[in-house]
Amino acid sequence: MSTVTAVADLRAVRRRRQTLVVAGMVLVVLVAGTGALLIGAAGLTPGQAIAGALGLGDKGDVFIIQKLRLPRIEAAVVVGAAFGLAGALFQSTLRNPLASPDILGISSGASLGAVIGLLALGMSGVALSGLAFGGAGLVALAIWLLAWRKGLHSIRFVLVGVGFAYLCSSLVAWAMARAEENEAAGVLVWTVGSVSDIRGEQLALVAAGTLVLLGAVAVVSRSQGPLSLGDDNARALGVRVDAARVGALMLAVALVALATSAAGPIAFVALVAPAIARRLVNDGGAALAASTATGAALTLVADVVGQHGLLGVAAPVGIVTGLVGAPYLLWLLATNEKRSR
Amino acid sequence: MTNLRAEGVSLGYDGLRVIEGLDLTLPDGKITAVVGPNACGKSTLLRGLARLHPLDGGRITLDGADITAMPRKELARKVGMLPQSSIAPDGVRVAELVSRGRYPHQGWFGRHSSDDDAVVTTALESTGVAELADRPVAELSGGQRQRVWIAMVLAQQTDIVLLDEPTTFLDVRHQLDLLDLLTELNRDRGTTVAMVLHELNLAARYADHLVVMSAGRIVAEGAPSDVLTSEVVDEAFGLRAHVVPDPVAGSPLVVPVGRYHSSAVEPSAG
């Protein structure tokens, strides 16, 4: 076999593998989504569910499918995809597998914004989401200002971010401790994350925003390959490193802020989905598409598990993501390690 | 042909000047080696030439045009640079790493074309790593890995290639191997090569043009046989040494004296 074909073959193999991972995750989404449409307090047959989704058949079924079950599935997929992609961008841009919006305090910034809106200003709905979005953006900006020293230094960015994560979490805990019992329940959603109440206009807004950001990421993602070789190599290959990283991080922050403003900080998805995706694709790249699909699959599966009390109690998605995602990641790490030694 | 020049260049880190008002022209189509003691600014100079380090003063020109006014991608199609101790990401395979060298030749939505494959293949073959094409870079030996990085720079297809200590961490056989490879590249393709080297004697043997630096300035430059005298070694490194003809190549061979073992002859002047 000549070297030219070997080079082309390797590329084909890589692309096939990437497609396979994305397709696998989409399949998980379809299976879990179908399951979520069918199971529930009102047991529907597949026929009733399809009819309901199309707006046909019994009015009650249509309501259950279109107003309750479908939005929740869509919300889990959209928000999960946003978290997965954002995490992958953070991790590849900062070249640190621990760099994710939960650890960098950007999610906690969103929580803090929402909690302030909820408790101090008595806000709700879209205004509250706006405040959460602002909180995430503000924390990102603050990390930025404190971490920038004639260029972006990954470790500094991560350390400053961890500082903000603690600061924001402490303030949220303090606010919760002061809150009345009935208010505290509302606050809890903003600290754990949930996709159960995203529907209608809000869902459309988040979905449209996520789609736009996905497109933007696709445009800038080409520089991620050279960037993974380090700043000097990337510059030598013609990448405007600071601009590329600033751009990628801004898109990642926007994705997180958007998703968190609707669903709260769903734990772990942004950290674990890219790690899983990279393990599965394993080409040394950022695995952006696979991370997006993995985030969606992970979040939806976690929500189905949590919603139907498969853990013995109905739990919001944010609690389950860690329980589902962490063991899977650990299993992947353990098995991959053995194969490569 | 392309001509890379530093004109009155000053470089430094956070207000600390490392190089002040330095002039250097890389001879076209030749191999230039830059030597000097640790912290003399030789790596910084090379990084400046490749626009990896911002200039505090002066300018660097490529065929007379200021490189800072050039889009980075355009510069990357003309000047290739292999920085010190590059680390490949986990899981990346040889052909993939080498393919990254095609980045400056691809557009915004650039996909790899069959032309790219051909260039990558040539790069793999001329560095002798073709049979490793689908192996993970992390599993290779140090010598193989360095060849792969050089293949990546070759895939960039630049007329000028800069290398920052390409032989560090290699044993002596692999050092020679690598320098032979760079010589072939220079002779077969006419590529201008400039590299920072630690090993004086290999620099003297392989370079057409030798630049000796000390404390941020050029102590001497020119043909190795003219430049590398015991005075220059003493001035640059603060080291007494004999300089004798290399029995293999006839280039100057530096034999350092040191504080012990200096029994026989005093170094001759000249």
TrEMBL record, chain A:
Q: Which GO terms describe its biological process?
A: siderophore-iron import into cell
Q: Which family does it belong to?
A: Belongs to the binding-protein-dependent transport system permease family. FecCD subfamily.
Q: From what organism does this protein derive?
A: Promicromonospora soli
As for subcellular location, the record says: Cell membrane
Q: Does the keyword Cell membrane apply?
A: yes
Output this protein's name: ABC transporter permease
Supply the alphabetized keyword list.
Answer: Cell membrane, Membrane, Transmembrane, Transmembrane helix, Transport
- Membrane topology recorded in Swiss-Prot or TrEMBL: Multi-pass membrane protein
Q: Can you supply one Gene Ontology CC term for this chain's record? A: plasma membrane
Q: Which stretches are transmembrane?
A: 20-44, 73-91, 103-121, 127-148, 155-177, 248-273, 285-305, 311-334
The record's CDD domains line, in alphabetical order, gives: TM_ABC_iron-siderophores_like
Q: What one GO molecular function would you report for this record?
A: transmembrane transporter activity
Automatic annotation (TrEMBL), chain B:
Leader sequence segment: none
Gene Ontology molecular function: any one: ATP hydrolysis activity
Q: Which keywords does the record carry?
A: ATP-binding, Cell membrane, Ion transport, Iron, Iron transport, Membrane, Nucleotide-binding, Transport
Q: Does the keyword ATP-binding apply?
A: yes
**Listed GO cellular component terms?**
plasma membrane
- Primary localisation category: membrane
Q: Where in or outside the cell?
A: Cell membrane
- Domain (ABC transporter): residue spans on this chain: 4-240
Question: What are its GO biological-process terms?
Answer: iron ion transport
Q: How does it sit in the membrane?
A: Peripheral membrane protein
User: Which Pfam families does the UniProt entry name for this protein?
Assistant: ABC_tran
Entries under SUPFAM superfamilies matching the protein: P-loop containing nucleoside triphosphate hydrolases
Q: What is this protein called?
A: Iron-dicitrate ABC transporter ATP-binding protein
